[in-house]
């Protein structure tokens, strides 16, 4: 579900013309629709209403504070993976007691920052990390809420780069050794063992991997009870997929129907970490055709956004729909083309061998489903300024991130005499 549609032949986000935004803000830019964003959040929250829960939005999917603030106001917590994301979550007004912190490589500085802030819990991924948390908490005179991230060894049936819950992945602690790690953690002086965590992957379009993983997790929680470790929080991670092309992922309520009955029996607060499903289809990236060219009979549309602005097609061969901002009038020719960016790499494309309406030079196009892992994965490669981000509310829009300036590019750099 999303709020991008053609009104009078021009693509709008809610009631705002994307052409108008392009005229005023320039291209490329990301545009997010507040109505879609909040409705995705609320549909998710509604689906799991029956069980005590915290929905910790995965900040990595899109970390703009303007957007985080909207979700936080709606009641969301945050799932973070770095000190930088913690900083953003706090700036956006997130209650520290709704923040969970995952990631295999938390530095001492980051652990200290999180302890001083008083986050709900660290999702620890190794015994050395547990020791580090315990030591730093001791030094600061703080107590650290901790969950262990276990690896349930479930195949999420998604792209290998974004599957995280298999034995061969670097994430979490294997179920085989996790009990030992729990024993270890429960003996630590400055650690409160309050939870368990798992996250099996991203863009998951089937229900069964979630169900299998939750079943394994709950069987493990039972084992913890047997050794008298009673936890309060069960964090089942994120990963629910969205429709980019023709995928038919389960709706949050369909997922809930399968997993809520067992989770309900736990007398625990259930934490969810959705990212993509909240923000993915709430955003598009708008770019302009700079040139159309032919090489060896192949059509290339060179646009002003590149892999530095949206890396998913290059990195994961991900499919992102392409829409002209002007509805193609009847009879407009279709061509098979590559949509490529200005970056000096052959891997710089937004779409490959795609049948699209014939574009004219200077025409605008929207790359759909770009709200998640779009801007947040962008870079300055080729010394390109990162683009503007806009949040639409009805017929108004707000620039929630200015386009970078040339000076931004060299901020902090120095020439040595
Ligand atoms: N929790 C943890 C611990 C995670 O590592 C992730 C995503 C999430 C939650 C949120 O997952 P989601 O609900 O968004 O699927 N860059 C890739 C996706 C990487 C996902 C990394 N972890 C992409 O563009 O497809």
Q: Largest beta sheet, briefly?
A: 9 strands, mixed
CATH topology of the largest domain: TIM Barrel
Q: Tell me the strand percentage band.
A: 25-35%
Low-confidence runs of at least 5 consecutive residues: none
The overall average pLDDT, rounded, is 95
| Rg result | 23 Å
* Count of individual domains: 2
Helix fraction? 25-40%
What's the total count of β strands?
Answer: 21
Bound molecules: ligand LLP
Can you say what the CATH homologous superfamily of the largest domain is? Alanine racemase
Count of individual helical segments: 12
By CATH reckoning, the class of the largest domain would read Alpha Beta
Query: Which structural category fits the helices and strands?
Result: alpha/beta
Structure, described:
Helix 2 (34-47) runs parallel beside helix 9 (252-264), helix 5 (108-117) packs across helix 6 and helix 8 packs parallel to helix 9. The protein starts with a strand and ends in an 8-residue tail after the last helix. The longest helix is centred in the middle third of the chain and has 19 residues, at 208-226. By secondary structure, the chain is α/β, with parallel strands linked by helices. Strands 4, 14, 15, 16, 17, 18, 19, 20 and 21 form a 9-stranded mixed sheet that branches. The chain has an 8-stranded parallel beta barrel with strand order 5-6-7-8-9-11-12-13, surrounded by 4 helices. A 3-stranded antiparallel sheet has the order 1-2-3. 29% of the residues lie in helices and 26% in strands. Strand 5, helix 3 (65-73) and strand 6 (77-80) form a beta-alpha-beta unit. The model has no long low-confidence stretch (mean pLDDT 95). The chain has 2 domains: 4-32 and 280-404, Lyase, Ornithine Decarboxylase, Chain A, domain 1 (Beta Barrel); 34-276, Alanine racemase (TIM Barrel), CATH 3.20.20.10. It is built from 12 helices and 21 strands. Bound molecules: ligand LLP. The site of ligand LLP has 23 residues, from helix 10 and helix 11.
């Amino acid at each position: 579900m999303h709020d991008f549609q053609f009104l009078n032949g021009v693509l709008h986000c809610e009631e705002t013309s994307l052409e108008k935004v392009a005229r005023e803000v320039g291209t490329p830019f990301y545009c997010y629709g507040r109505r879609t964003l909040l409705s995705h959040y609320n549909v998710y929250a509604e689906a799991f209403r029956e069980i005590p829960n915290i929905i910790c939005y995965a900040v990595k999917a899109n970390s703009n504070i303007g957007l985080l603030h909207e979700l936080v106001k709606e009641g969301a917590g945050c799932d973070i993976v770095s000190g930088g994301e913690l900083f953003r979550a706090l700036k956006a007004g997130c209650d520290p007691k709704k923040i969970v912190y995952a990631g295999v490589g938390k530095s001492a500085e980051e652990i200290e920052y999180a302890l001083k802030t008083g986050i709900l819990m660290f999702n620890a991924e190794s015994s050395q990390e547990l020791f580090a948390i315990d030591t730093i908490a001791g030094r600061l005179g703080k107590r650290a809420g901790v969950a262990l991230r276990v690896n349930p060894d479930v195949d999420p049936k998604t792209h290998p780069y974004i599957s995280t819950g298999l034995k061969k992945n670097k994430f979490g602690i294997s179920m085989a050794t996790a009990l030992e790690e729990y024993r270890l953690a429960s003996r630590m002086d400055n650690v409160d063992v309050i939870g368990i965590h798992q996250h099996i992957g991203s863009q998951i379009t089937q229900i069964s991997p979630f169900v299998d993983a939750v079943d394994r997790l709950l069987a493990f929680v039972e084992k913890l009870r047997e050794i008298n470790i009673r936890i309060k929080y069960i964090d089942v991670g994120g990963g629910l997929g969205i429709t980019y092309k023709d995928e038919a992922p389960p709706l949050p309520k369909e997922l809930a129907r399968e997993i809520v009955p067992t989770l309900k029996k736990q007398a625990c607060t259930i934490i969810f970490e959705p990212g993509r499903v909240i923000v993915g289809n709430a955003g598009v990236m708008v770019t302009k055709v700079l040139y159309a060219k032919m090489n060896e009979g192949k059509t290339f549309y060179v646009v002003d956004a590149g892999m530095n602005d949206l890396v998913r097609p290059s990195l994961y061969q991900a499919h992102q729909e392409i829409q002209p901002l002007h509805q193609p009038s009847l009879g407009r020719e279709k061509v098979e083309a590559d949509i490529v960016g200005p970056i000096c790499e052959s891997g710089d494309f937004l779409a490959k061998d795609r049948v699209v309406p014939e574009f004219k030079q200077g025409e605008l196009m929207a790359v759909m489903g770009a709200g998640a892992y779009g801007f947040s994965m962008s870079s300055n490669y080729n010394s390109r300024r990162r683009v503007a981000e806009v949040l639409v509310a009805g017929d108004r829009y707000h620039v929630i991130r200015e386009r970078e300036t040339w000076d931004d590019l060299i901020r902090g750099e120095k020439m040595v005499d």
